[in-house]
Every structure is written in C-alpha cells, then in structure tokens.
Write a structure and sequence with these properties.
CATH class of the largest domain in chain A: Mainly Alpha
Number of strands of chain A: 6
Number of domains of chain A: 2
Radius of gyration of chain A: 17 Å
Order of helices and strands of chain A: HHEHHEEEEEH
CATH architecture of the largest domain in chain A: Orthogonal Bundle
Shape of chain A: globular
Strand content of chain A: 15-25%
Distance between the termini of chain A: 36 Å
Bound molecules: manganese (II) ion, zinc ion
Largest interface: A-B, 42 and 42 residues
CATH superfamily of the largest domain in chain A: Winged helix-like DNA-binding domain superfamily/Winged helix DNA-binding domain
Oligomer: homodimer
DNA sequence: TCTTGACTTGGACTTTGTCCAATGTAGGAT
DNA sequence: ATCCTACATTGGACAAAGTCCAAGTCAAGA
C-alpha cells in the first residue's frame, strides 16, 4: 500500500497528515478493522484526528476501490485493504476473528441463468462461519 | 408457517396476541423485512404492539431456528422466515430488493482443507449483488 | 508568500437496537 | 369460573454506529 498515496495524489487528493495516517493504519494487508479501531490506531500517531475524518477517509477509499467494506454480523462494518486480490472470508462465530480465504471454484458460475431473475449480477461474496481453534480450545 | 405456533406452544411458549401477529406478518415465505417493517405491519393488526416486543419475538424466533437473520449492508438486519429450505440471496445494489436463489454447487465443498485454518466450519452463505430489472429500466 | 477551495473538527443528530422497572395476562391450579 | 403468578409486554431511557454541518485550518498552485 506504499504507492496508494501516489495513486491518490494522482487522483487529485490533497495529502493531509490525517489521510496519510489512515492509510498507514490500513497498510500491511490482512487486517479487517472497524472504523473505531482505525480511529484508535490513528490516534496513536496523530492524537487529534477526528472520528469524522476517519469516516470520511474510509468512505473515500471505498469509493475509489482501494478498500473494501465488509458487513459481517449486524455490528460495525469492517474495512479491508486487501482490495486487489479476490478473496472471501472465514469468520469465527464466537470471537469474530476474520481470515481471508481463497476458494476452489467460481461461485458466480454456480448461479444458473433462471435464478438470476433478470438481474445484471456483478458481484458475489462467500462467507464461511465456524469456531476458530483458539475459541475451540477454550 | 401455520404450524409454527403449534411448534412454539410445544416448546412452552405462551401464545400471546403479539407473538401471533408477528408470526402472521412473517407468514407467506419469501419476505425479508427489517424489524421496523415487521413492526409497521404488525401495528396494522394490533395497534399497540411495541417495538421492544417485536425485537424480543424476532430474537426468540431466530434462537429457535424458525427465522434467519440476514445482514446485508451495514443497515438494519432483515428477518427471513424461509429457514427450512437452504438458499442464498441476490440483492439489488440500488434498491435493496432481496430474492431467494438456489445454487448449483455446494460452496462448502469449495473451501479446501488448508484454507480452513483449523476452524470447525459449520455454515456458508453466498450473496450475489447486481442491478434488478426494475432499477435497470429506470 | 498569498490565496483559496478543499479538508478537518466537534458536536448535534439519526438509525438501529438493547435494557429495565412497572404493568398486564395466559394458562395451570383450585 | 376464578385466582395466582411466572412469564410477557410496554414506554422510555440508553447505547452503538454512523451522518451532517457550520466554522476554522491548511496544502499546494500562482
Ligand atoms: Mn479480507
Ligand atoms: Mn431468504
Ligand atoms: Zn474465535
Ligand atoms: Zn433494484
């Protein structure tokens, strides 16, 4: 994600300290933070960053396709910087941990034409749930 | 769902007017209402039913496995009385309409052992998104 | 260095949902 | 048929997650 800021500048973004910090927090793929978690971690680096700015920046990153929104349960959305490699999610039903997973067949191909009801289907996500090893042993 | 009330009585439920009305609203499969939509429809039949009771009853029905919770976007959860036939969902990304769909292959089989990371995987849901015919023509 | 439109901020507000003490009632007991 | 009481309902306070806005700040081009 080091070149993310470059791409964003290319799109006319002003490079503010706040945006830089949000990008840094999301850097190092494989995280799935809530907005509040992003805010907490951003605050460690830039104490006065506001919640509103974190929400604004996350929303912009999602619009640009640089970050994915993951709605797991009915709780807070999670933000996923791993937007450039197709993947799905495996979620622990007890502790909420999320892992990226890669699956063996294309789920888009599994939806027969008559089951599409005239929709222009453009996206599919597969969510697996179960108990993680950590929760199982406890 | 006519025998739902029988099953519930068998489980020791008191058959109150409120519970009856919530069950009636969810009757006739293929609906995916939010709690507030259930409340609005329940109010037409029983004007003084409270929001708290609708939430309580929906929660109980979910615990009993009679109704499924569907978390689509980050908005209100939807309640799905079609709990006894496996199915997945196709959602219009513009208007939010939900359709039940049946898929051709088993998505559980698509997750290879090494991608399970020691989880005891018990559940999988597939969500398709696209533009419905109605929204496409508008 | 100056200027200005874009960005940030704190707080009010909204939506969705939970919790609780007070009140009501379904259904078994008499 | 009536009584009893444990369970259910209610309204309103509260909480979590997110949006919106007017006022102040600042990145970056001139
Ligand atoms: Mn992910
Ligand atoms: Mn359904
Ligand atoms: Zn776990
Ligand atoms: Zn639509």
């Amino acid at each position: 994600m080091s070149d993310l800021l470059e791409r964003l500048r290319g799109r006319g973004w002003r490079l503010t300290a706040q945006r830089r910090v949000v990008a840094e927090v999301l850097d190092g793929d494989h995280v799935h933070y809530t907005a509040d978690e992003v805010h907490a971690r951003a605050t460690e680096r830039l104490p006065e960053i506001s919640r509103a700015t974190v929400y604004n920046t996350l929303g912009e990153l999602v619009s640009l396709g640089e970050v994915l929104e993951v709605s797991t349960d009915g709780r807070a959305k999670r933000y996923d910087p791993n937007a450039h490699h197709d993947h799905h999610h495996l979620i622990c039903s007890q502790c909420g941990t999320i892992r990226d997973v890669h699956i063996a067949s294309d789920p888009m191909a599994a939806l027969p034409e008559p089951e599409r009801f005239g929709f222009a289907v453009s996206e599919v996500s597969v969510t697996y749930r179960g108990v993680c090893p950590n929760c199982a042993s406890a």
